[in-house]
Design goal:
The chain contains 8 helices and 23 strands. By secondary structure, it is α/β, with parallel strands linked by helices. Helix 3 links the parallel strand 11 and strand 12. It is elongated. The chain starts with a helix and ends in a 17-residue tail after the last helix. This is LRRCT domain-containing protein. Keywords: Leucine-rich repeat, Repeat, Signal.
């Protein structure tokens, strides 16, 4: 009995001695776990604030940090998520208020699932061009009753159901070109919808990529009855795409001039802008929209600007034709661009600009001319004369490349030194009787004439309309 009591007492003492150590370890464990939980909760809160974890209605959520910008223009709320590498549509709660315009161009979105845009009821325009979209569910645009503009060009769509468009009763502009459309029976309903006369701005430039017999044809020109008349073999099974040897496929006619809508990327918001850079163009494309504000034609192979190249772009504000190896600009090629503010002609092969090219650019503010082999002879005087008459134009890069004695010299300094040298065509002629009369020298009229001659090259001067006769 005493032995049992002794053992019980010893065990109790040992337990009391070990209890602080056990509590310390347990407390340490709880502290580490609590610290981890607190840190995880802090990171989750921070991620929600930064918009890192986005729940997407068009696909699985992804961990990303889209640096979308929000801006308000003329009372409309824009959300710009272009070039963010997104593969899904963020939830509508992501932004401070419901957007009127969503810009998702140049991302990695592949699928638009049912209800992808629920919560975006205020949208009037949606830009999804230049993604990897290959599938659009019938209910993808559900709720977009106010949408008027949908841009789906430059994607990977082979088919699209008419049901996808029913959710957008106010749709007026639909871009579908540069998609590999498979013009077979399932496309019947969409093609019928596009061909309704009131839908004149829906899918205007979309063309078939398959089957071979319809390749290159516009969707609006295809007979929808023809699509569902499948050929069958003797057993009654549908045949594949076979070319009828008695009716060979006609080659697609070669266009003499590229079309601006299909050759360039067009962005409608916040201003109409066309990106035609690095498209392999050898001339200015036709069909430039009248309401375009900015055009980028840089990094192509355009060597010659022709008259009326921009005759339809009356509202153009900026024009970039740099890096094109351009050698010549026709008079009248820039005519009608009364609202142009910025013109970039840098890094081309221009030696001079002939008389009259710049005459319509009344409101030009910025002119870039660097990287051209300007030749400082009498042909360069027009450029300097025009710039003197338009002192509000800020220009750069107007330096002599040749002849050797003027290499590196500014064209302005060359023209000044040229005028100081008193050209031969202004030296007095001994056969002119008026020049021998000292009373006619240095009159106010003659001094004004000399100043005008200094500014304007002789081959550009208009013939005199009046002759001053001195009466004794």
């Amino acid at each position: 009995m005493r032995l049992t009591s002794s053992l019980l007492l010893a065990s109790l003492v040992l337990l009391l001695l070990l209890l602080p150590s056990i509590e310390m370890r347990a407390g340490k464990g709880r502290g580490l776990k609590g610290a981890r939980h607190k840190r995880a909760r802090h990171e989750l809160t921070r991620d929600r604030v930064r918009g890192v974890r986005r729940h997407s209605r068009s696909g699985p959520s992804r961990i990303a940090a889209p640096q979308c910008s929000e801006l308000t223009v003329s009372g409309d709320f824009f959300v710009d998520c272009q070039d963010q590498g997104l593969n899904s549509i963020p939830a509508s709660e992501t932004w401070s208020k419901q957007p009127n315009h969503l810009l998702f161009a140049r991302n990695r979105i592949k699928i638009l699932r049912d209800g992808a845009f629920l919560g975006f009821e205020s949208l009037t325009s949606l830009d999804l061009q230049q993604n990897h979209i290959s599938l659009v569910a019938e209910g993808a645009f559900q709720g977009l009753t106010r949408l008027t503009t949908l841009l789906l060009q430059h994607n990977r769509l082979g088919t699209l159901s008419e049901e996808a468009l029913i959710s957008m009763p106010n749709l007026r502009y639909l871009r579908l070109h540069d998609n590999p459309w498979d013009c077979v029976c399932p496309m019947d309903s969409l093609i019928r919808t596009l061909q309704v006369p009131s839908n004149r701005n829906l899918g205007n430039h979309a063309r078939c990529a398959e089957p071979t017999r319809l390749k290159g044809m516009k969707l609006k020109q295809i007979d929808p009855e023809f699509l569902c008349k499948e050929k069958t073999d003797p057993t009654g099974n549908p045949q594949g795409d076979q070319t009828d040897p008695t009716n060979p496929v006609q080659p697609i006619p070669i266009r003499t001039k590229p079309d601006a809508t299909t050759s360039c990327h067009t962005y409608l918001f916040p201003q109409v802008r066309m990106d035609c850079s690095k498209r392999g163009l050898t001339e200015v494309p036709r069909g430039i929209p009248e309401d375009v504000v900015h055009i980028d034609l840089s990094h192509n192979s355009i060597r010659h600007l022709k008259a009326r190249d921009f005759q339809g772009a009356r509202g153009l504000r900026s024009l970039n034709i740099s890096h094109n190896n351009m050698e010549h600009i026709d008079t009248g090629s820039l005519s009608g661009l009364l609202h142009l503010r910025e013109l970039d002609l840098s890094n081309n092969s221009l030696h001079s600009v002939q008389y009259g090219v710049l005459e319509d650019l009344y409101f030009l503010l910025h002119l870039k001319l660097g990287g051209n082999p300007w030749v400082c002879d009498y042909s360069i005087h027009y450029m300097m004369y025009w710039l003197r008459l338009h002192p509000g134009v800020r220009y750069s890069g107007l330096l002599c490349r040749s002849p050797l004695e003027h290499t590196g010299e500014s064209v302005a300094e060359y023209v000044r030194s040229y005028n100081r040298a008193c050209p031969k065509d202004r030296q007095p002629s001994r056969t002119d009787p008026d020049q021998t009369d000292p009373e006619l020298w240095n009159t106010a009229m003659e001094v004004q004439g000399e100043l005008e001659e200094e500014l304007e090259p002789s081959h550009l001067r208009a013939p005199q309309k009046y002759q001053i006769i001195r009466l004794s």
